Amino acid sequence: MIFPFLDMFFSSFKGVAEYSKMKYSLFPDSFQWENYRTAFNNLNMLVLFRNSLTRSVILTILVLLTSSMSGYALAKLRFRGKAIIFRFILSTMMFPGFLFLIPNFYIIVHFPMAGGNDIFGNGGNGGLATTVFGLVVPSMVSAFGIFLMRQFIMTINDAYLEAARVDGASELRIFAQLILPMTVPALATLAIFEFIGSWNEFIWALLLSSINPDLATLPVGIQTLKSNLDPTLTQPLVMAGLVISTVPILLIFILLQKYYVRGLTNVGLK
Predict the structure, then answer these.
(1) What CATH number is associated with residue 213?
(2) pLDDT by residue (tens digit) across 106-138?
(3) DSSP 139
(4) What are phi and psi of 210, to 5 degrees?
(5) Residue 206, pLDDT above cutoff 60
(6) How many helices, marked H, and strands, marked E, lie in the chain?
(7) Rounded CA gap, 246 and 6, in Å?
(8) Which of 12, 76, 137, 165 is packed most tightly, with the most Cβ within 10 A?
(9) Is-contact 118 110, C-beta < 8 A?
(10) What domain range includes position 18?
(11) What is the count of structural domains for the chain?
(12) What is the C-alpha separation between 218 and 43, in angstroms, rounded?
């Protein structure tokens, strides 16, 4: 599992001739530190990093909010059609993501009262596709996140909720002060999955960056380092960019690892 990361790290220091030679070697003959300098010079790394971080943080927060609220409603509240709604949400997980690519793009471009569009979505100025909201809105609700939070919240004893209701607490207060603190392991697990997924997402970011290049993220920018004539000529530069883009993911996982492990442990004990 660790070997691909080691190969990526050491390949980022290799020269052109070293990477393309037939006899493989994990370690470079000499460390080419200028690969990182070249990657920074060829890419607007700070802008790409800012776009990726902004998108991932906002999207992770929105998914945690929508998933926890939906999970609480589907797990603990009583209303007609709850089972049908839950099954419908689960059914959306059977469809591949690229199936919604064109419909989502059409909705974002023709979003009413945004980006120069009128109330009917006409205007031809790109709508939300020219703003950072276009990177976030299509993925702000996660069927997997709703499923994960619903299953975790169902393990919470109803006696806690009934006691809070007897004391006069509203559903919003129960959710904020009782449910959320008790679901920290599940929230941390979902945050890891969502942050990594949004950080590495490529197709949607590439599509919107074709309309507004200022919305390009790190995965999109790193691909521009590749040579169209011979990809092996610039592969060490791509590896250097990948090393830089991997650092935030490692930090997020290290910070939330104890909550992730605690969540798995709790589920196993129950």
Answers:
(1) 1.10.3720.10
(2) 888 888 877 777 787 787 777 888 888 888 988
(3) G
(4) -70, -25
(5) yes
(6) 15, 0
(7) 12
(8) 12
(9) no
(10) 3-269
(11) 1
(12) 9
**Distance from C-alpha of 214 to C-alpha of 226, rounded to nearest angstrom:** 20
Residue 127 C-alpha from the chain's centroid? 23
Quote the CA–CA distance of 62 and 54 in Å, as a whole number. 12
Q: Return all residues near 268 (Cβ < 8 A) that are at least 6 apart.
A: none
Global pTM?
A: 0.83
Amino acid at 45: M
Section 170-191 average pLDDT? 90
* 214: its two tokens: 């200022």
Tokens of 247: 């650092």
Q: Which two tokens stand for residue 199?
A: 């950080």
Q: What is the pLDDT of residues 126-175, one digit of tens each?
A: 788 888 888 898 899 999 999 999 999 998 888 989 999 999 989 899 99
Length of the chain: 270
Identity of residue 225: L
Q: In whole numbers, what is the pLDDT of the chain averaged over residues?
A: 85
Contact 108, 128 (CB under 8 A): yes
Interval 14-58: pLDDT, tens: 887 777 777 778 888 888 888 888 888 777 888 888 899 999 999
Residue with tokens 């080691």: 6
> How big is the chain by its Cα radius of gyration, in Å?
23
User: What span, in angstroms and rounded, lies between the C-alpha atoms of 252 and 12?
Assistant: 22
Is residue 229's pLDDT more than 60? Answer: no
**What span, in angstroms and rounded, lies between the C-alpha atoms of 197 and 133?**
17
